[in-house]
Amino acid sequence: MRPLVLTLGEPAGVGPEIIAASWRALSTEAAPFAVIGDADLMRRQGVPVAEIMTPADAAYRFASALPVIHRPLPRPVEVGRPDPANAPSVADGIEEAVSFALSGEASGVVTAPIAKAPMYASGFRFPGHTEFIAELTADAPYPGTRGPVMMLTAQNLRACLVTIHVALDQVPELVTAERVARTARVVHESLKRDFAIARPRLAMAALNPHAGEGGALGLQEIDILIPVARQLRAEGIDITDPRSADTLFHDEARATYDAAICMYHDQALIPVKTLDFWGGVNVSLGLPVIRTSPDHGTGFDIAGKGIARPDSMIAAIRLASEMAKARGAR
Ligand SMILES: NC(=O)C1=CN([C@@H]2O[C@H](COP(=O)(O)OP(=O)(O)OC[C@H]3O[C@@H](n4cnc5c(N)ncnc54)[C@H](O)[C@@H]3O)[C@@H](O)[C@H]2O)C=CC1
Ligand SMILES: NCC(=O)COP(=O)(O)O
Asked: Binding of a divalent metal cation: at which residues (predicted)?
């Protein structure tokens, strides 16, 4: 299988050190990966670095050194202090990684975290990787319902988001029948295609407390979510009516479904990160390329101290490999 390509993310955050630690953990046992980023910054993480030209070169260098496609940063990195002047290079790295995946030179993309505020300050106009990668791949063919849908997964929980990075007061107007239905279709198709689940079971989380309490605590369940669930079932998708979100994520409840369709960011991310912060992975569904990421952010408070845990990055690398295999990557 072709190597995965990893992006460095925010260079002043934990990205470089968790990538170096992931290579140390995986160099003898996992499929090769290549990093796009500043080779000197990676050398400073204490790992041997092999500068390579294309992802394919990673295959024969990976066992002895971290393969890096060198893209120097314009400004020196001060650990813990992001510099917006480096942000365009961060975006360029993501774009190049995606182009390797689109051309088939890479089997997928694993992104280290970016710091959103300095990216926005430098003119980056996307809420995050998810929407940026969707735009970069918009013209590529895709055999199914197109996303992006953000999914966070840890252990046996897959939580998928109808709305992503929006202020809470905007959520109710964005929870439309069209958006909920599209999210469920993308998730249903992806569970079959990328996760080899033959008959996916979806659970829909309600928006309001007690699933609206028959309309007394909100009308979205009656007006939008119950009709959408009925329509999706008519299409052959196994999905529940909206269930109270407060009782959807404990052990016994999780055993009843393969993925939860969640209405907003924290409804999905709090259970995942509480269940397993170290093993959590962020996955972009419904795109022509495979993309995963650790569930955490840039960790500026701990960057450079040697205490950042690579577990979530390692889980993201492993999951991207499994998804690429499920998609039949060469
Ligand atoms: N996929 C991405 O690009 C993501 C980017 N972010 C960005 O990260 C920045 C910081 O966000 P925060 O909310 O502070 O979340 P954060 O995940 O960076 O930090 C939250 C807490 O977790 C700890 N932590 C994070 N990664 C760790 C690791 N590998 N090992 C040990 N401890 C770790 C931090 O020290 C901190 O105490 C923001 O700019 C945000 O936009 C946040 C989430 C995902
Ligand atoms: N809270 C999740 C997050 O910020 C990840 O966003 P993205 O960069 O993966 O789109």
From this structure: 165, 210, 265
